[in-house]
Amino acid sequence: MHPVDYHVSPYAGSWYPGEARELGSLIDQLFAASEQRTGRFIAPNPAGFVVPHAGLIYSGTVSASAWRHISAAQPERVVIIGFSHRGGPHGAWLPDTRGYSTPAGDVAIDTDAVARLAATGAFQIAGEAALCDHSVEIQLPLLCRAAPRAKCVPVYTSRLSPQQRTAAACALAALARDGALLVASSDFTHYGRSFGYTPFPADSWAPERIRELDESAIETAASLRSELFVDSVCKSGATVCGVEPIALLLEALSMLSHCGEIFGEMLDYQTSGEITGDYSHSVSYAALGFFPFRSFELAREDGNLLLEAARATLSRYLETGERVPVPPPCLTPGTDRRATAFVTLRSQGHLRGCVGRRAAGQPLSKIVPELALSSALDDSRFQPVSRGEAPLEIEISILSPLKLVPDRSAFRVNEHGAMLEAGPYRGLLLPQVATERNWTAEQFFEALARKAGAPLSVYSDRNSRLSIFRAQILS
After folding, report:
1. Which of 245, 352, 400, 419 could form a disulfide with 345 if both were Cys (CB 3.0 to 4.6 A apart)?
2. Which of 296, 322, 337 is the last residue of a domain?
3. Using an 8 Å Cβ cutoff, are 264 and 222 in contact?
4. What is residue 285's predicted lDDT score, i.e. its pLDDT?
5. Within 10 A of 227 (CB to CB), how many other CB atoms are there?
């Protein structure tokens, strides 16, 4: 029996199965489906997540991609930031209860952490009945499955001023520095007449247009700049219901300098329209993870497997003339990671080819051998590699997720690479390019503009987009 002062979640039996065995079976299926969709790689040391909150049969597979990471991390305390769909009181609020009861088990609230947050003055306490919402409570069965010993800190937000957001973020960042994991609950675009949002017809182009709206919001969320994210959603009109929880999460994450530079990555994405086949009424689900750069670095053994695959692929081509990618001799969770990668070839120290590919759902074990061939044969700056050439040196660059930045001040030469997008202009330079040429930051950006075919004035154009990244170099 659950304690009498525990809140019994009203969403059991409607938003998810009300019987423990059926619910457990569903969550197991969701976790398995997530691994099938996104691969086995689990980035360690997560700092925070954005997770969807529709009924589990709709958003649960996408949500599981985040909760699988949480399961690997086994945090002792999870802060779940939600909001009331009914329109809760303005500000940041904490429910006055000791825990929750669900068919998956009871979830204790960390009352010490609640008291600590309330003492800052940035949070107020209200009765659970005034705050209760599925944005928080749909996460509880997943929390029970992923981290059954973790305590929960539920937070409800509504219409925070910038000053209120900063104050609340400072308090949450202090908890995070003490080991708490931050999770913001939000769905993305709500499209259809029932949502009062039909900026384009529900035709064959609707899925692509919905995704464009979502990707714009997701990209600005990955910037970790709450004001940039909020402004982007306001300008695009995307109906992201959890703007406040996401903005509060981003503000808090931006204060976590102790764990190194944090990057945001989309772990999975799907729409209800894709699930039901009906895009006249569609809600978007995205799971975002925020990690320090070191979390994305592959183990040495995984890197050696990828290098071996690239070497074997090139050797096979030079021996047989067959353009056939050779996979690594064994597959691991690390080689199963989805990431942007470049393969650079050099001959006697001189560049012989360099080709990259943005992450598109393919594992590194597949794209690295393919890139090795493309670098040897398809780089238009060079003649294709042929037999009899000096042995090729192979370098693989595994990129972090891109981080959109408002200007060049966030760039650090010799640490960051950058991508420039401005209308028809597009260019990318890896971070080691500056190191190899002993460039300053200004020289790097001059070269990046040349690579994109753009004038230097492109950096003062408000429509230009600049993103930075780091890279793990395997050679």
Report:
1. 352
2. 296
3. yes
4. 98
5. 15
Query: How far apart, in whole angstroms, are the C-alpha atoms of residue 180 and residue 182?
Result: 6
CA-based R_g, the chain, Å: 24
* Residue 151 resides in a domain: yes
274 within some domain = yes
Across the range 241-267, mean pLDDT stands at 94
Q: How far apart are the first and last CA of the chain?
A: 58
Cβ-proximal residues to 219 (8 Å cutoff; 6+ apart), any chain? 402, 404
Residues 189-211, mean pLDDT to the nearest whole number: 95
Q: Would you state the pLDDT for residue 258? A: 75
Run of H or E including 245: helix 243-253
Residues 324 and 428 in one domain: no
Q: Which residues pair with 428 in a beta bridge?
A: 419
Q: Can you list the alpha helix ranges (DSSP code H) found in 379-475? A: 431-437, 441-452
Residue 451 CA to its chain's centroid (Å): 28
Coil, strand, or helix at residue 274?
helix
Which whole-number Å values give the CA distances from 435 to 117, 345, 347, 473, in the listed order?
Answer: 45, 17, 19, 13
Other Cβ atoms less than 10 A from the Cβ of 228: the count is 18
Looking at the 3D structure of the chain, how many domains does it have? 3
349 belongs to a structural domain = yes
